[in-house]
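Write out the 3D structure for:
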Amino acid sequence: MKEKIYTIPVNEAFDAGGECPFCTMREKIENDAINYVLGPSYMEEDIRAETDEKGFCKRHIRNMYERQNSLGIALMLSTHFEKICGELREKLKEAPVSGKKSLFSRPKEGERSASSEFIHQTADSCYVCERIEENMARYIDTFFYLWKTEPEFKEKVLSGNGFCIEHFAMLLDEGQKRISDKEYSEFYNSLSKLELENLERVRGDLLWFIDKFDYRFHDEPWKNSKDALPRSIKKLMGENVEEEK
């Protein structure tokens, strides 16, 4: 299989052998994006303009805080604060959407004041999330390109560990848009078989992990179950909860 620059991250994720290659890709994008904004880039005007505009969600501001670059975060938040305060001050001058309501009346769907709408948009905006979504969209495109054009890649996928539930559903949905009806039937059946086999594999490891707490199995080997709990969480929820070693 001939590698191209844009196919390398996808192939590397499938070669890594984790419980979900798309989670592996997402985690790398997320870490790279956080390291990028906390590196020298936060002093660049164009990057600061973007982070001022988009801000960060709760998850990613917490991730950034844990990296212990206090000065970098403080500088970004200070100018983001300035932008929010200035825009909110102007929004709050505008009249509310409606006046007094009766005790039993309910606001119409989408009925918000300008200030409330601005706050909701700000809370939902995140520079890191946006970078993740943009890159993941490209990786999904690459996955289907490789699936349709590279038999070796298809073989690699089908000999792998399947996907987390969320990304398995995503592939079934995206496949309907990107693959012909005739080819989709084979795609659907192949991925479904792969996913069910691997869910049973992880479930079996989890059951043996539980059995190992029974004194009767104390001297039995762990087999593949020592990390069954974090792998089960990854499979079902897509979350990486493995402890640092």
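The radius of gyration is 23 Å.
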